[in-house]
Each structure stands twice: as structure tokens, then as C-alpha cells.
Amino acid sequence: MINFRKDFTFYVSIILVVLLLLSATTKNAIFLYLLFGASLLLINNPVYLLPVYIIASLSGNFFDIGGGFSISRIVALVFIIGSGFKYGGSFNVNKNYINPILLIFFFNIISSVTSLTGSMWGFLEMLPNLLIVFICSGIKFPHINKLTFILTI
């Protein structure tokens, strides 16, 4: 039986990836604004934002949405806020993931402090990514095959 709500979020996630790819090929910022608006539809189910976040953050294209913000930062913010709404009270992190995340966290702090400029901006830019890794370590998502299908498109 088809579950409309789950299929709806799956198709919105595919539409987000298509909008991101259209903005990369046409260099038109309107697609990024549409992507931002459509990503708000998935704030109650933020796991479906992961494919567009992974593609936008690992791409060589900056996907500038204006004011020095890229779409990956905005999608990360929507993901973090949506995860707070959905998993706020019932969030269980696997203990095996805490040490590597803390190690990356401290290496980022040390790298920022000992850099030539001594600026903490590099750490602050990496902080949402670390938070997403931490959130993903506690999410139990049985339909991971749908997300990997979206990434192969």
C-alpha cells in the first residue's frame, strides 16, 4: 500500500536535488530560492534533506543564495532546526560515535586557534557540519535505501 506522506517527502527530496542541479547548470538564483522554500516542507522529516545537503556541501560550486550564504548552510540550518523539533526529547546517540566526533571537534578548535590568523571562523563554519554528523549518529532511519537512491540520481 502506498503511504502518501512518506512518498510525498521522498518526491520532495528528489525535487530538491533537481532544483539544486538546475541552479548549478543555469546559474540562476531563483532555483535556490525555490529550493529553500521547498526545504521548509521537510522540516518535520529532516532526514530527507540529507541528499541535497550532501550534494550541496561536497560540490565544487558555492551555490550562493546571497549575502555570502550558500544553500548548504541554509539546508543545514533547516535540518538542525527540524531535527530539534522531531528528535528533541527522544534522541539516543550511540556511544561508539561520541569519541570520534569529539576528536574531530577538538582538532577543529586546535586547527583554528593555531592557524596563521588565529581566527575562529573556520571552526564556526565547521560547527554546523559537526552538529549534523552528531545528529545523524542518533537517527534510526529504516528507509535509508530511498536516500541512497536519491544520491545516485
Overview of the structural elements:
This protein is mainly alpha-helical. The chain has helices spanning 4-26, 29-39, 50-58, 71-87, 95-113, 121-138, 144-152; strands spanning 64-66, 69-70. The radius of gyration is 16 Å and the shape is globular.
Taking strands numbered 1, 2, ... along the chain, how are they ordered across the largest sheet? 1-2
Shape: globular
Q: Whole-number average pLDDT? A: 82
Uncertain runs are none
Largest sheet: 2 strands, antiparallel
Give the end-to-end Cα distance, rounded to a whole number of Å.
Answer: 25 Å
Q: Pairing-aware structural class of the strands and helices? A: mainly alpha
SSE pattern? HHHEEHHHH
Instruction: Give the strand tally.
Output: 2
Tally of helical segments = 7
Residues in β-strands, percent = under 5%
Percent helix, as a range, is 55-70%
Q: From the alpha-carbon coordinates, what is the Rg to the nearest angstrom? A: 16 Å
Structure characteristics:
two-stranded antiparallel sheet, 69% helix, 3% strand, single chain, 153 residues, 7 helices, mainly alpha
In short:
The chain has 153 residues and is mainly α. It has seven helices and two strands. Helices cover 69% and strands 3% of the residues.
How is the secondary structure organized here?
Blueprint: H1 4-26, H2 29-39, H3 50-58, E1 64-66, E2 69-70, H4 71-87, H5 95-113, H6 121-138, H7 144-152
Antiparallel strand pairs: 1-2
Helix pairs in contact: 1-2, 1-3, 1-7, 2-4, 3-4, 3-7, 4-6, 5-6
